Amino acid sequence: MPSEDVAILTGISWYPNPGYTQLSGPPNDLKIVEEWLLDPKRGAVQPENVYKIETPPVDSRDFDPEIAPPVGQDFDRVFRKLLTSRMKLGAGRVQGRLYLYFSGHGFCHRSLEKPAEAALYCANASREMYEHIFGTHYARVAVGWALFAEVVLIMDCCRDSEVSRVPMPRPYRDTPDDGLAAEVKFLSIYAVPKGAKAQERPIEERNGNVHGLLTHVLLKLLDELPPADGVQISATQLKNHILESWPAICGPEAAPRPDIYLPSAGEVYFPSANQGSPFEFRCVSPLQQASTLSLVDGTFQIIANFSLDQSGPDVVHEAGPIISYERLANTLKLRMKPGLYQYRVDLPAKQDTFKVDGSNGYVEL
């Protein structure tokens, strides 16, 4: 049966008015998010259920800055049509998942009473008129109206906290009086904590293309993490690994860790590609004949033996944490479950611990 999941993807990279820098990441972010969503083994969303609101191509940007697209009405139009169609389903609408994804410049409410929210600046935002799309508000409407069984909000944008700017909700009426919203699961993921600035940068493993750090790390871990239950990745598992792996993947100069709010009505699950995180062993010194590299897990069980000079067979524990391996010249490339391990080389004798955390780590032998 085709998935009933729906995704609305918004990416704004061109801000023609003074006071806003141009961004390179949003179009690349939308591309890889859309690829993940459409992949039958990952997001499995039907192509007709993916809506994109994005900056137009460079050669068609002959617009008055005051009406430069996308504007707030562009998003609202898509959302209202979706709301209307879902409400016609009655109680049967509470199934499937809604993805709301935003990439661009953003801000949030300064009040301490409003911690978990953010808005995306529209392309026509200016110093005088801060046109925006209040992403959190739309997610709250989707939850309150119980348009789907699950709502996933991802906002890869800054959360600047300014005295003179307050995210403004659209005038949607009160939620339906049918009590369905109580069971809706709502997961919200913000690129940075309140008041912090998100980052974009070239990502080597994505062909050097510029991406928002949240988008890169989120999709990377969805592809690499092993399923906790053998089948799927839970939102809790995903959150824990994002927060733990953030410094290792993004480096010491990265933005603060993301702000992630788990559902209160139950767990949300994602399909696992189970590719494993990368780690390499590089032979940079001459090795004695028949030298063996042994890998040991946290319970001190040997999970693999590799013949470094390839004079003997490699033995890998089938049920162990090694997903795959490949030999390239003097390099052994592994894909493994994240964790802390130990390696041992017998000739010459050497051993130490190593951590697999998604950071493309390596050991030189």
Verbal overview:
A six-stranded mixed β-sheet has the order 2-1-3-7-9-13, sandwiched between helices. The protein has helices spanning 25-38, 72-87, 135-144, 213-224, 235-250; strands spanning 6-11, 50-54, 97-104, 106-108, 119-121, 132-133, 150-157, 160-161, 185-190, 200-202, 210-212, 232-234, 259-261, 269-271, 277-282, 292-296, 302-307, 315-316, 322-328, 331-336, 339-345, 350-356, 361-364. The model has no long low-confidence stretch (mean pLDDT 91). The protein is α/β, with parallel strands linked by helices and 365 residues long. The termini are far apart. The protein has two domains: 6-271, Rossmann fold, CATH 3.40.50.1460; 277-364, Sandwich (Immunoglobulin-like). A hairpin with a 7-residue loop joins β10 (200-202) and β11. Helices cover 19% and strands 30% of the residues. This is Caspase domain-containing protein. It comes from Paraburkholderia steynii.
Tally of individual domains: 2
What's the Cα radius of gyration? 23 Å
Order of helices and strands: EHEHEEEEHEEEEEHEHEEEEEEEEEEE
CATH architecture of the largest domain: 3-Layer(aba) Sandwich
Estimated helix fraction = 10-25%
Count of helix runs: 5
Give the CATH class of the largest domain. Answer: Alpha Beta
Characterize the largest beta sheet: strand count, sense, and whether it forms a barrel: 6 strands, mixed
Poorly predicted ranges (pLDDT <50, ≥5 residues)?
none
Strand arrangement in the largest pleated sheet: 2-1-3-7-9-13
The CATH topology of the largest domain turns out to be: Rossmann fold
| Spatial shape | elongated
- Tell me the number of strands: 23
**How far apart are the termini?**
51 Å
SS strand fraction: 25-35%
Helix/strand structural class: alpha/beta
Q: Quote the average pLDDT.
A: 91
